[in-house]
Specification:
Number of domains: 1
Strand content: 15-25%
CATH class: Alpha Beta
Number of helices: 9
Structural class: alpha/beta
Largest sheet: 8 strands, parallel
Oligomer: single chain
Distance between the termini: 32 Å
Shape: globular
CATH topology: TIM Barrel
Length: 259
């Protein structure tokens, strides 16, 4: 494969490209949203995206690198998770790094006071450890994509948007509408697991490309054999090589759609 020059999309203005003009030419937006923070997978994901001048969306369990973390060892053993040296490194390369909870609890299955405590602890840790993190501009990606109105109300006073299970907000629709407002958003997502998700992604993307448009957000995890519902690196590479040729589609991070 011919390696393409990596363009940091955060600095496109410096070479005369207007992101708003680029957005206005597209009817379809696709975000591939990678959860948990597998170190090897995150670097590989970033490399594949960089080959096509794209930014990856990577969502991090704030305590995943700490010795105290022991949640879901089958799907996210702590020895495979990166730390904030890795996340600052990838952010400096232009990728989107966003919170995916403090310790990967289903916030709807614990007392609301504990859920709020976990949210605050996660956001505080990001503020103190991720370079240039802005809580008010961040996107909180729920663990298990599970939320309820009380948790959403609490979070949306703090962050720009929350990513939730598609069935909670999209109802009978497959994709989000491209939002006119840029804050206080509940964004629906779809995912598949625990096995390899290549076929699910292919079917979902093709269905979306044949639709009238909107914004499809797909939740992914690791690459190849890492995590719940992994995507194969060869398929991801071939997928992006095809998608960048679709003139009416933009493969974007959540933050860039909300510019």
């Amino acid at each position: 494969m011919i390696r393409r020059s990596f363009l940091k999309l955060s600095s496109l203005a410096s070479i005369g490209i207007n992101l708003n003009l680029l957005k206005n030419s597209c009817s379809h937006f696709l975000t591939l949203s990678f959860d948990d923070g597998f170190k090897k997978s995150s670097y590989k994901t970033a490399e594949i995206f960089e080959n096509y001048g794209l930014k990856a969306s990577i969502n991090i369990i704030a305590s995943g690198h700490l010795k105290s973390f022991n949640r879901d060892p089958k799907w996210m053993p702590s020895k495979l998770l990166g730390d904030f040296y890795d996340w600052n490194n990838l952010k400096s390369r232009g990728h989107e790094i966003m919170p995916h909870s403090w310790e990967h609890l289903n916030l709807t299955k614990i007392p609301i006071a504990k859920a709020k405590y976990n949210i605050d602890k996660c956001l505080d840790y990001f503020s103190n450890n991720l370079d240039d993190f802005s809580e008010s501009n961040s996107i909180f990606n729920y663990p298990y994509n599970s939320s309820n109105s009380e948790i959403d109300d609490y979070l949306l006073k703090k962050v720009r948007a929350v990513r939730v299970r598609g069935g909670l907000v999209l109802k009978n629709k497959f994709s989000n509408k491209i939002p006119l407002k840029k804050t206080n958003l509940r964004l629906g997502t779809w995912g598949y697991g625990p096995n390899l998700c290549d076929d699910f992604i292919e079917k979902s993307v093709n269905q979306f490309l044949n639709s009238k448009g909107g914004w499809l957000i797909l939740t992914l995890h690791g690459i190849d054999n890492e995590g719940w519902g992994p995507i194969s690196s060869n398929y991801l590479d071939k997928l992006l090589s095809r998608l960048i040729k679709v003139k009416y589609l933009s493969v974007s991070t959540i933050s860039d759609v909300l510019v």
